[in-house]
Amino acid sequence: MTSAAHLFGTNLVAMVTPMEPDGSISQSGVGNLVDHLLSTGCDGIVVAGTTGESPTLTEAETNNLIRTVAARAGDRARVIAGIGTNDTASSVRRAREAEAAGADALLLVCPYYNKPTQAGVTAHCLAIADATELPVMLYDVPPRAGIAIEQSTLIELAAHPRIRAVKDAKGDLFEAMTVMAGTSLAYYCGIDELNLPYLASGAVGVVSVVGNVAAGQNADLIRAVNAGDLDAARAIQRSLLGLTDTIMGTAQGATMAKTALAELGIIPHPTVRLPLVEPAPVYREQLAKALQTIALPA
């Protein structure tokens, strides 16, 4: 069976969607950002996930983004399309459109807001996994979805041949280790603050927001853990604490990641779409200081 690392990559970035000041998608910004991610060690790009502001992207914009990123990345990185919604029929349609647009894999968030039973979550995920030939990474994020994909549901879904991985933003390491021990599901840490503990517990890789500006450090972290060099891994994680706290713990992850990329000149502007707003000056100042603490490519 093809490994999860081959299907999805290991050092994944939840890519922001660059925009112009008028709110339109910046094509030059998308191209520059993809080049930046590839040059800093990213081997998997999540397009139109939450960090990419999926709730405010149209389906046409999403499909165009997938096509653009897939063409730019070529065979240098896997392109994982965020296609999950709280409407199964819409998610099935989006999955098929993503496959046609050139996505390599799908990211399927637990259906949010509706609060279905676990039987409903299972039926939703299976319907989408059956809709294409692409491998699926489940996205378990109770703080956003309002419900979790429970352990028994994860184990049941693991029997589907195309459900191959989990982006875990639940933060229950013991459950993650239990599911990894009992299934073939590959785990990816979806909480930047916990990248090292997840990797040390058996996760294949990360899906990182901070990776928009620190994919190189994440690549080094993954290599260090795989080599068994936990001293080096701890040093890398410590070096990222300030930046991670600033991006993930102040204003809002997507807005702060965009501001960081604009500060570095990688994207033209930190525009976000309402209801998101750009960070207040105090947070931008904190971010500028945090960026100075890490080594970034010239």
Number of E-type strands: 8
Return residue spans where pLDDT drops below 50 for at least 5 consecutive residues: none
Strand order of the largest sheet: 1-2-3-4-5-6-7-8
The helix content is: 40-55%
Please tell me the overall pLDDT: 96
Give the radius of gyration: 18 Å
Helix-strand category: alpha/beta
Q: Determine the oligomeric state from the structure.
A: single chain
Question: What is the number of helical segments per DSSP (H or I, 4+ residues)?
Answer: 14
Taken as a percent bin, the fraction of beta residues is: 5-15%
Which geometry do the CA atoms define? globular
Write the element-wise H/E pattern from the N-terminal end onward: HEHEHEHEHEHHEHEHEHHHHH
Give the termini distance in whole angstroms: 39 Å
Main sheet: strands, sense, barrel = 8 strands, parallel, barrel
Give a nutshell description of this structure.
The protein is of the alpha/beta class and 298 residues long. It has helices at residues 4-8, 27-39, 59-73, 88-101, 118-129, 142-145, 151-157, 173-182, 195-200, 211-226, 230-239, 241-249, 253-263, 281-291; strands spanning 11-14, 44-47, 78-82, 105-109, 136-140, 163-168, 186-189, 205-208. The protein has 14 helices and eight strands.
